[in-house]
């Protein structure tokens, strides 16, 4: 701080204003310290702003690329039984319905910087009050507050609630961009080397003279005994105008640019007096801008226009009167005005206008720099000083409190006049000590004020922004933590199940294939064996149980009888087929259950099982051929052999099988198909009507029967040959005729008598023989009946098995896929949440670090 020079100090009292080296040197040293201090703070703040910019930019990137940052609201917990200090219900704008109980911790340090954090509420420690303070301030965002600006801002929270997570994140992105822009602005502002000092005061108080004294010029600003200045005049260093001294007359409502002549009119410096004192001037017009060279100033004691850190411009204002108070107060309120210097005449003290101005301007600029001028004209200086100080105490307590630096009693005219004839080298030495002290104090005050006016807002904004970033990071850490926990829990729930399914996949596949193959093979084999046995029974003329035995109507009905027998035998085969189908159904039903068991073994418990109910009755059901064949509730397709015209047609050989007896010695049906290719043995013509050959066959057949049960025709013919040989014998020839007649008659009688028994055997044999080479279907098919049927049954069983297996496979595949996806997504979420958590923790650390840099006392 500047050294305090007590009012009684000789330096102050000294009438001579020329040089008091110790005081001016001390003031200068103090001023240098302020400059250094300012530079340090500026540097530190600049670094903190830079670091904050990086942090916000990183946060912005993180929000768009990695993690949609969520916007928290902190509400009073609904369960108010144990509210606890800082206990809040944390909800998020995009998901207002779900809330988490948290503790909002908020701790202010000695620099009144608030550190905020959000932690999950540990229900077990509810009895212990957390050592935190939760005010509404600690839960509210100041910079990153989302404002939808949809008119009714009071309801902004409700409106935000309806937005999607991505919309919130986009809104936040906008806020972060705006914050970055503002940080850039603040950064530029704290490095802005310009500072404006407004010199105002009563009419004729000596403002222009004081400005001249500061400028080390005797007559830059026009002075006179009477009120003179009618327009604001801003004096800046000519270095800002290529070292050219001139006046720029600014145009109202045009953005001034010194390099652009269209924005102002250039007037020579010697015209300044005329311009500044023109009584027609509009006091609200922009200030005249005067560029002044510092050629008359020694480098050892530069004017206030340039003091190494900031370039100060001095603004001489018109004297205050009723009309100009408002204009000047408005001018003083401008953000660019760092310091208001109020010049008061020592003789007049504070006039009403002065008091009114100070009241108005005092609100904006708490500290006023007060110059009591024309102090030389006061005889009783101490009395004057006391009176003025008393007034200052009333008008500006802040200034009074710091009066040693902010209230100065000087003689500006003498200082200003001192430059008139002096040469450069002596000017500094000739400075009045009090004025010199004033000057140093003013410099320091400008810097101190700049620290407040320029560094302060930057510090304040950055501090609040950091607190917001910290709150966001902390609330999002809670989310990330929860998301990670949920994801990890989900992984630990689903992963073992997934692994088990993966391990069991091959075994399930093997099981399904094996089951399908074995069941199909078993049904096929079973069918083949059963049908073969049934066919053999039919071959022997045996009917199946339950098939009524046709009644033999007598010789005349032999043909119909053969037909009935054929139908009965074919029905027996049909029954056999049905029985085989039934057993295949049973086998298949068992196998479908086995597949269900495989499902239970391999599918996770929560996977829905097949709702298909296996209906065994639907097997072997042919829609195109299903009309009206219903047996005991089942739709039988079977073969319908009895209705098959190719099989049910009776032939002569069904009654008298001449060929069979001609070529076979054994009436037992042979297994060998080559011996009984029926179609080779029976001429086509015999299939329909009884022809001549048919009649002959019938006779021969009858004859063959007469010779014994199983006498072959060949033996008979051989016998006939022997008989013809015997015929050469006259005795034989005599008896041959009657004997032959007897034999034939006997044979015929026998054959007729045996017909009810021989017809079933003949028919059965023929059916068997036919079905050993064809399938018995309507269309001619070379596949033997048993093979064709067992294959058909096998196919049907396989079809059912495939369907059941497909269903299970699909369920298994879908369940596996779902679990794979859950695990993949959960792993992704866990990884993302972990990264976010680390990132948010890092943000909190970075905020702490920057906060340290920001903790400046300005
Ligand atoms: N003795 C003495 N005279 C001074 C002092 N300061 C200013 N004067 C004289 O007072 C008169 C008015 O000074 P100005 O500087 O014109 O006053 P002002 O406040 O700028 O006047 P307006 O801008 O017209 O209101 C001039 O004649 C100055 O010489 C001072 O400290 N001591």
Automatic annotation (TrEMBL):
Subcellular location: Mitochondrion outer membrane
Lineage: Eukaryota, Fungi, Dikarya, Basidiomycota, Agaricomycotina
InterPro entries attached to this UniProt entry: Dynamin_N, G_DYNAMIN_dom, Mitofusin_fam, P-loop_NTPase
SUPFAM superfamilies (UniProt xref): P-loop containing nucleoside triphosphate hydrolases (SSF52540)
Keywords: Coiled coil, GTP-binding, Hydrolase, Membrane, Mitochondrion, Mitochondrion outer membrane, Nucleotide-binding, Transmembrane, Transmembrane helix
GO terms classed as biological process: mitochondrial fusion; mitochondrion localization
One GO cellular component, as annotated: mitochondrial outer membrane
Catalysed conversion reaction: GTP + H2O = GDP + phosphate + H(+)
Name of the protein described by the UniProt record: Transmembrane GTPase fzo1
PROSITE patterns linked to this entry: G_DYNAMIN_2
Membrane topology listed for this record: Multi-pass membrane protein
Species this chain originates from: Vanrija pseudolonga
Residue ranges occupied by any Dynamin-type G domain in the UniProt entry: 191-476
A molecular-function term among this protein's GO annotations: GTP binding
